[in-house]
């Protein structure tokens, strides 16, 4: 018994930006970018909102729009979704939550909603949290039935995890080191508790203190002066001069070192918890931060690159949506079949990292 992925979808903005176009903005070229990142193009949301992207990915995962993947072929009623979890760094509003905005758009009228801020690990944190909630709800329902009483918590049978990101809003387009890496998009999965099926086999999540602030984007409202020191002219003057850096900043080498070690450590721990080895995994769908990170990890693990789904070449890094998009492409392309075991890994700001193992 377990939490089974029954639907998968993705959404990418219409505007494709090539490396040559970036070369017109910053000092870079396609020849410089590709060997260092594996990225040829990325999609940028010029007109699309986070709600647009998240809703489209969700509707495809539900089979309500073409282009998604359904485990059993039948479309899923949005009204059957009990909970929506949206990992995102770039919600359309401080509130309502991005999850609530997506709920309204897709007609998931019975869903409880919340957002999750865990950067590029959102793929794992979101699906692992959904799995734990489904497991707990199944136990609550079983206990309620045995005691002939109502469940004591919201019954959860289907959860939509949809990561929607517009990282283009956080990128400093004058900084070559970061602007070449990121793109926009959304990835989604529908998870259902099935008593008679294996689904999520194990998961592992961790946080590491980022004392050196290797990955940072300050709050958009952290520099707003408050009126309470108005009587103190000096304090008011200082507050008025405070400014926030609105862009993400990254120490590339430090992040690379963290990412490679965290990716392997989390995969190894998740597989150990499931009692499995690399040989049992049909395909790894890692966070798409940099193709060099994936290649480095594959080499250290003694595995060919064919065992890893790579989508960064045409998407760039889309934070928590990246691995969900990679999973969707693997499912749509037929690289994962019913009964196969897959392993998804994420790592990012926080510092966050994790991996989960599941049977398709």
UniProtKB/TrEMBL annotation:
<dbReference type="GO" id="GO:0033818">
    <property type="term" value="F:beta-ketoacyl-acyl-carrier-protein synthase III activity"/>
</dbReference>
<dbReference type="Pfam" id="PF08541">
    <property type="entry name" value="ACP_syn_III_C"/>
</dbReference>
<dbReference type="InterPro" id="IPR013747">
    <property type="entry name" value="ACP_syn_III_C"/>
</dbReference>
<dbReference type="InterPro" id="IPR013751">
    <property type="entry name" value="ACP_syn_III_N"/>
</dbReference>
<feature type="domain" description="Beta-ketoacyl-[acyl-carrier-protein] synthase III C-terminal">
    <location>
        <begin position="271"/>
        <end position="360"/>
    </location>
</feature>
<dbReference type="Pfam" id="PF08545">
    <property type="entry name" value="ACP_syn_III"/>
</dbReference>
<keyword id="KW-0808">Transferase</keyword>
<protein>
    <submittedName>
        <fullName>Beta-ketoacyl-ACP synthase 3</fullName>
        <ecNumber>2.3.1.180</ecNumber>
    </submittedName>
</protein>
<feature type="domain" description="Beta-ketoacyl-[acyl-carrier-protein] synthase III N-terminal">
    <location>
        <begin position="153"/>
        <end position="206"/>
    </location>
</feature>
<keyword id="KW-0012">Acyltransferase</keyword>
<dbReference type="InterPro" id="IPR016039">
    <property type="entry name" value="Thiolase-like"/>
</dbReference>
């Amino acid at each position: 018994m377990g939490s089974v992925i029954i639907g998968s979808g993705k959404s990418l903005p219409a505007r494709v930006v090539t490396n040559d176009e970036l070369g017109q903005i910053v000092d870079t070229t396609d020849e410089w970018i590709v060997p260092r990142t594996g990225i040829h193009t990325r999609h940028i949301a010029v007109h699309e909102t986070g709600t647009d992207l998240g809703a489209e990915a969700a509707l495809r995962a539900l089979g309500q729009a073409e282009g998604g993947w359904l485990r059993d072929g039948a479309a899923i009623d949005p009204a059957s979704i009990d909970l929506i979890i949206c990992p995102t760094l770039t919600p359309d509003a401080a509130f309502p939550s991005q999850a609530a905005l997506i709920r309204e758009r897709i007609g998931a009228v019975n869903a409880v909603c919340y957002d999750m801020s865990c950067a590029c690990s959102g793929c794992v944190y979101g699906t692992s949290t959904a799995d734990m909630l489904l497991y707990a709800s199944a136990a609550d329902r079983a206990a309620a039935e045995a005691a002939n009483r109502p469940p004591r918590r919201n019954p959860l049978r289907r959860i939509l995890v949809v990561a929607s990101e517009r990282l283009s809003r956080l990128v400093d387009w004058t900084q070559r080191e970061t602007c070449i890496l990121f793109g926009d998009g959304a990835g989604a999965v529908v998870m259902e508790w099935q008593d008679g099926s294996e689904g999520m086999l194990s998961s592992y999540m961790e946080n590491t203190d980022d004392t050196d602030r290797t990955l940072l984007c300050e709050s958009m409202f952290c520099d707003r002066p408050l009126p309470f020191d108005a009587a103190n002219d000096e304090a008011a003057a200082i507050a008025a001069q405070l400014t926030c850096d609105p862009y993400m900043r990254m120490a590339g080498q430090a992040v690379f070192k963290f990412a490679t070690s965290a990716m392997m450590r989390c995969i190894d721990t998740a597989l150990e918890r499931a009692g499995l080895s690399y040989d049992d995994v049909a395909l790894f769908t890692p966070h798409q931060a940099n193709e060099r990170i994936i290649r480095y990890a594959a080499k250290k693990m003694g595995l060919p690159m064919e065992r890893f789904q790579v989508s960064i070449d045409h998407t760039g890094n889309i934070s928590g949506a990246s691995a969900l998009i990679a999973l969707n492409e693997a499912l749509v392309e037929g690289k994962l079949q019913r009964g196969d075991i897959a392993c998804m890994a994420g790592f990012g700001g926080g510092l966050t990292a994790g991996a989960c193992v599941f049977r398709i």
